Protein backbone atom coordinates (compact mmCIF):
# COMPACT_ATOMS: atom_id res chain seq x y z
CA UNK A 1 0.00 0.00 0.00
CA UNK A 2 1.55 3.32 -1.08
CA UNK A 3 0.17 6.30 0.80
CA UNK A 4 0.96 9.87 -0.24
CA UNK A 5 1.00 10.92 3.40
CA UNK A 6 3.81 8.56 4.45
CA UNK A 7 6.74 10.61 3.18
CA UNK A 8 9.78 8.60 2.09
CA UNK A 9 8.19 5.60 3.81
CA UNK A 10 8.45 7.41 7.16
CA UNK A 11 5.43 7.39 9.45
CA UNK A 12 5.32 11.00 10.70
CA UNK A 13 3.94 9.88 14.05
CA UNK A 14 7.11 7.91 14.71
CA UNK A 15 9.40 10.89 14.16
CA UNK A 16 7.30 13.85 15.32
CA UNK A 17 5.22 13.04 18.38
CA UNK A 18 6.72 14.93 21.36
CA UNK A 19 6.75 11.84 23.59
CA UNK A 20 9.71 10.71 21.46
CA UNK A 21 11.76 13.68 22.67
CA UNK A 22 13.18 13.91 26.21
CA UNK A 23 12.55 17.65 26.41
CA UNK A 24 8.79 17.19 25.90
CA UNK A 25 8.08 13.62 27.03
CA UNK A 26 7.09 14.32 30.64
CA UNK A 27 4.70 17.12 29.70
CA UNK A 28 2.99 15.29 26.86
CA UNK A 29 -0.26 13.33 26.85
CA UNK A 30 -2.32 11.68 24.14
CA UNK A 31 -5.94 12.67 23.52
CA UNK A 32 -8.58 9.94 23.10
CA UNK A 33 -11.78 10.40 21.09
CA UNK A 34 -14.92 8.38 20.48
CA UNK A 35 -16.91 8.23 17.26
CA UNK A 36 -18.35 11.64 16.24
CA UNK A 37 -16.23 13.51 18.81
CA UNK A 38 -14.76 16.72 17.39
CA UNK A 39 -11.05 17.44 17.71
CA UNK A 40 -11.69 21.03 16.64
CA UNK A 41 -14.40 23.12 14.98
CA UNK A 42 -14.39 25.79 12.29
CA UNK A 43 -13.29 29.13 13.78
CA UNK A 44 -11.42 27.47 16.68
CA UNK A 45 -7.97 28.83 17.44
CA UNK A 46 -5.30 27.16 15.28
CA UNK A 47 -2.63 26.67 17.94
CA UNK A 48 -1.83 22.96 17.47
CA UNK A 49 -1.13 20.37 14.84
CA UNK A 50 -2.13 16.73 15.29
CA UNK A 51 -0.77 13.27 14.52
CA UNK A 52 -2.96 10.18 14.52
CA UNK A 53 -1.65 7.34 16.69
CA UNK A 54 -4.62 5.12 15.86
CA UNK A 55 -8.16 5.43 14.52
CA UNK A 56 -9.54 7.66 11.77
CA UNK A 57 -10.28 11.40 11.51
CA UNK A 58 -12.60 13.18 9.08
CA UNK A 59 -11.67 16.64 7.83
CA UNK A 60 -14.44 18.81 6.38
CA UNK A 61 -16.54 21.96 6.51
CA UNK A 62 -20.16 23.06 6.20
CA UNK A 63 -21.32 24.91 3.09
CA UNK A 64 -23.73 27.83 2.95
CA UNK A 65 -26.70 25.43 3.05
CA UNK A 66 -25.38 23.80 6.21
CA UNK A 67 -24.45 20.60 4.40
CA UNK A 68 -21.32 18.74 5.41
CA UNK A 69 -18.52 18.64 2.82
CA UNK A 70 -15.84 16.01 3.46
CA UNK A 71 -12.31 16.91 2.34
CA UNK A 72 -10.47 13.81 3.58
CA UNK A 73 -10.49 10.90 5.98
CA UNK A 74 -7.09 10.36 7.57
CA UNK A 75 -5.66 7.31 9.31
CA UNK A 76 -2.77 6.16 11.51
CA UNK A 77 0.48 8.12 11.11
CA UNK A 78 -1.07 11.06 9.29
CA UNK A 79 -0.82 14.75 10.15
CA UNK A 80 -3.65 17.31 10.15
CA UNK A 81 -4.22 20.90 11.23
CA UNK A 82 -0.87 21.66 9.57
CA UNK A 83 -1.88 25.12 8.31
CA UNK A 84 -1.23 26.34 11.85
CA UNK A 85 2.48 25.85 11.09
CA UNK A 86 2.14 28.35 8.23
CA UNK A 87 0.49 30.99 10.41
CA UNK A 88 -3.23 30.22 10.18
CA UNK A 89 -4.95 31.90 13.15
CA UNK A 90 -8.37 30.19 13.13
CA UNK A 91 -9.57 26.90 11.65
CA UNK A 92 -11.34 26.93 8.30
CA UNK A 93 -12.53 23.34 8.68
CA UNK A 94 -13.47 20.82 11.35
CA UNK A 95 -11.76 17.60 12.42
CA UNK A 96 -13.92 14.76 13.77
CA UNK A 97 -13.21 11.22 14.95
CA UNK A 98 -15.00 8.59 12.89
CA UNK A 99 -14.46 5.58 15.14
CA UNK A 100 -14.33 4.72 18.84
CA UNK A 101 -10.61 4.10 19.20
CA UNK A 102 -9.04 7.31 17.91
CA UNK A 103 -5.88 8.42 19.71
CA UNK A 104 -4.29 11.75 18.79
CA UNK A 105 -0.86 13.21 19.47
CA UNK A 106 -1.35 17.00 19.78
CA UNK A 107 1.65 19.25 19.16
CA UNK A 108 1.66 22.94 20.06
CA UNK A 109 2.69 25.20 17.18
CA UNK A 110 5.61 26.62 19.18
CA UNK A 111 6.83 23.10 19.96
CA UNK A 112 6.54 22.14 16.30
CA UNK A 113 8.50 25.21 15.25
CA UNK A 114 11.21 24.30 17.79
CA UNK A 115 11.43 20.76 16.47
CA UNK A 116 11.64 21.97 12.89
CA UNK A 117 14.18 24.66 13.70
CA UNK A 118 16.46 22.14 15.40
CA UNK A 119 16.18 19.46 12.71
CA UNK A 120 16.49 20.46 9.07
CA UNK A 121 15.63 16.97 7.82
CA UNK A 122 12.43 16.97 9.84
CA UNK A 123 11.60 20.48 8.63
CA UNK A 124 12.06 19.35 5.02
CA UNK A 125 9.73 16.38 5.52
CA UNK A 126 7.01 18.59 7.01
CA UNK A 127 7.15 21.13 4.19
CA UNK A 128 7.25 18.32 1.65
CA UNK A 129 4.14 16.83 3.24
CA UNK A 130 2.34 20.18 3.08
CA UNK A 131 3.37 20.61 -0.55
CA UNK A 132 2.06 17.16 -1.50
CA UNK A 133 -1.21 17.87 0.28
CA UNK A 134 -1.69 21.16 -1.60
CA UNK A 135 -0.92 19.39 -4.89
CA UNK A 136 -3.56 16.80 -4.16
CA UNK A 137 -6.17 19.47 -3.37
CA UNK A 138 -5.23 21.35 -6.56
CA UNK A 139 -5.69 18.18 -8.64
CA UNK A 140 -9.08 17.61 -7.08
CA UNK A 141 -10.12 21.21 -7.81
CA UNK A 142 -9.05 20.83 -11.46
CA UNK A 143 -11.14 17.67 -11.73
CA UNK A 144 -14.17 19.44 -10.27
CA UNK A 145 -13.80 22.34 -12.70
CA UNK A 146 -12.91 20.58 -15.94
CA UNK A 147 -13.99 16.92 -15.87
CA UNK A 148 -17.36 15.21 -16.07
CA UNK A 149 -18.64 13.31 -13.05
CA UNK A 150 -17.79 9.85 -14.35
CA UNK A 151 -14.21 10.89 -15.08
CA UNK A 152 -13.95 12.46 -11.62
CA UNK A 153 -15.08 9.19 -10.07
CA UNK A 154 -12.51 7.17 -12.03
CA UNK A 155 -9.73 9.58 -11.05
CA UNK A 156 -10.81 9.40 -7.42
CA UNK A 157 -10.72 5.59 -7.58
CA UNK A 158 -7.14 5.84 -8.85
CA UNK A 159 -6.30 8.01 -5.82
CA UNK A 160 -7.95 5.46 -3.53
CA UNK A 161 -5.88 2.72 -5.13
CA UNK A 162 -2.69 4.64 -4.33
CA UNK A 163 -3.74 5.28 -0.74
CA UNK A 164 -5.78 2.25 0.31
CA UNK A 165 -5.33 -0.37 -2.38
CA UNK A 166 -3.15 -3.36 -3.01
CA UNK A 167 -2.03 -5.02 -6.22
CA UNK A 168 -2.44 -1.57 -7.81
CA UNK A 169 0.95 -1.64 -9.52
CA UNK A 170 0.45 -5.13 -10.96
CA UNK A 171 -1.58 -6.68 -13.75
CA UNK A 172 -4.31 -8.34 -11.66
CA UNK A 173 -7.48 -6.81 -10.25
CA UNK A 174 -6.88 -3.71 -8.12
CA UNK A 175 -8.46 -4.17 -4.71
CA UNK A 176 -9.26 -1.11 -2.58
CA UNK A 177 -10.34 -1.27 1.07
CA UNK A 178 -11.15 2.31 2.00
CA UNK A 179 -12.75 4.23 4.93
CA UNK A 180 -15.27 6.31 2.93
CA UNK A 181 -19.04 6.06 2.84
CA UNK A 182 -20.86 6.70 -0.44
CA UNK A 183 -21.92 10.07 0.98
CA UNK A 184 -18.25 10.93 1.61
CA UNK A 185 -17.20 9.92 -1.92
CA UNK A 186 -20.06 11.90 -3.46
CA UNK A 187 -18.97 14.97 -1.53
CA UNK A 188 -15.33 14.54 -2.51
CA UNK A 189 -16.09 14.35 -6.24
CA UNK A 190 -18.76 17.03 -6.20
CA UNK A 191 -21.93 15.07 -6.91
CA UNK A 192 -24.98 13.67 -5.15
CA UNK A 193 -25.19 10.27 -3.51
CA UNK A 194 -27.93 9.04 -5.94
CA UNK A 195 -25.78 10.08 -8.92
CA UNK A 196 -22.75 8.32 -7.43
CA UNK A 197 -24.78 5.14 -6.96
CA UNK A 198 -25.92 5.29 -10.59
CA UNK A 199 -22.34 5.74 -11.81
CA UNK A 200 -20.99 2.90 -9.67
CA UNK A 201 -23.65 0.58 -11.06
CA UNK A 202 -22.90 1.76 -14.62
CA UNK A 203 -19.21 0.97 -14.11
CA UNK A 204 -20.19 -2.39 -12.64
CA UNK A 205 -22.36 -3.17 -15.69
CA UNK A 206 -19.40 -2.17 -17.91
CA UNK A 207 -17.27 -4.70 -16.00
CA UNK A 208 -14.95 -1.88 -14.94
CA UNK A 209 -15.36 -2.55 -11.23
CA UNK A 210 -17.22 -4.44 -8.56
CA UNK A 211 -17.99 -3.15 -5.08
CA UNK A 212 -19.32 -4.34 -1.78
CA UNK A 213 -19.47 -2.16 1.34
CA UNK A 214 -16.12 -0.40 1.62
CA UNK A 215 -14.26 -2.66 -0.78
CA UNK A 216 -13.90 -1.80 -4.46
CA UNK A 217 -12.31 -4.11 -7.03
CA UNK A 218 -11.15 -2.53 -10.29
CA UNK A 219 -11.32 -5.39 -12.74
CA UNK A 220 -8.43 -6.36 -14.97
CA UNK A 221 -9.34 -6.19 -18.64
CA UNK A 222 -8.76 -9.31 -20.70
CA UNK A 223 -6.25 -8.98 -23.51
Automatic annotation (TrEMBL):
Pfam families, per database record: cNMP_binding (PF00027), HTH_Crp_2 (PF13545)
UniProt key word Lipid biosynthesis: no
Cross-referenced SMART domains: cNMP (SM00100), HTH_CRP (SM00419)
Keywords, ordered alphabetically: DNA-binding, Transcription, Transcription regulation
Residue ranges constituting the HTH crp-type domain according to the UniProt record: 147-222
Keyword Cell inner membrane listed: no
Every Cyclic nucleotide-binding domain range: 12-91
Alphabetized PANTHER family for the sequence: CRP FAMILY TRANSCRIPTIONAL REGULATORY PROTEIN, HTH-TYPE TRANSCRIPTIONAL REGULATOR ARCR
Annotated protein name in UniProt: Crp/Fnr family transcriptional regulator
Lineage of producing organism: Bacteria, Pseudomonadati, Bacteroidota, Flavobacteriia, Flavobacteriales
Amino acid sequence: MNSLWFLDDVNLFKVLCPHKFKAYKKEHDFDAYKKKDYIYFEEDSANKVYLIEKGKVKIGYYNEDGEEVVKAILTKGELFGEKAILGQITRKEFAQSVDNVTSICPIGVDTMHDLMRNNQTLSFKIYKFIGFKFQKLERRLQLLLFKDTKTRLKEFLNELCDEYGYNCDKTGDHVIKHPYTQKDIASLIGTSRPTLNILLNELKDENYLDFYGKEIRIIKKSA
